[in-house]
Design a protein that fits this description.
The protein has four helices and eight strands. It is an alpha+beta fold.
């Protein structure tokens, strides 16, 4: 009986801790307000990738370099971020558009997972480095305007 009570308390504490971390990471992500132009590791493509975030909702668009108004692909994700680690839940995307681009990071991503995990390092006010861990390993640079999260707002205010 004693072991049962201890395990029950450990389970309750673990659930409360996980709930707290998810809630804090979501509230932190609500402070995002940015636009990022991704610099692709594949330089021979004729596409450009942009991401915008407002209140924890990230919209990523792949557009044609020649005609930027021609959106090839668009997805919407909900972002959770804490200490530079981001988890994004993919809410909406079009499978036919992904297959049309054949741009490998997106093609592989949406055939394998609806959760994306990445680490973001801010080098200065204008540049970030993104290191995607799940579902594939990928690193790229991005030129950013704005704030990644509430925590990022406070860090930039201190500088």
């Amino acid at each position: 009986m004693f072991l049962y009570r201890v395990l029950k308390k450990i389970t309750l504490a673990s659930c409360l801790l996980i709930t707290f971390l998810v809630l804090v990471s979501y509230v932190n992500a609500l402070g995002c307000q940015f636009t990022v132009k991704h610099l692709s590791p594949q330089t021979d493509t004729n596409i450009e990738i942009y991401s915008t975030c407002n209140s924890g909702i990230v919209t990523t668009r792949i557009t044609n370099k020649i005609k930027p108004s021609d959106v090839v692909f668009e997805m919407k994700t909900y972002m959770f971020t804490l200490y530079g680690h981001q988890v994004a839940y993919v809410d909406s995307w079009n499978k036919e558009d992904v297959e049309k681009t054949l741009f490998s990071p997106f093609y592989i991503t949406f055939n394998n997972s609806i959760f994306l995990h990445s680490s973001v390092n801010r080098f200065n006010k204008e540049w970030i480095g993104v290191h995607m861990d799940n579902p594939i390993n990928l690193s790229y640079l991005g030129k950013i305007e704005g704030y990644l999260s509430l925590q990022d707002r406070f860090n930039l205010a201190d500088e």
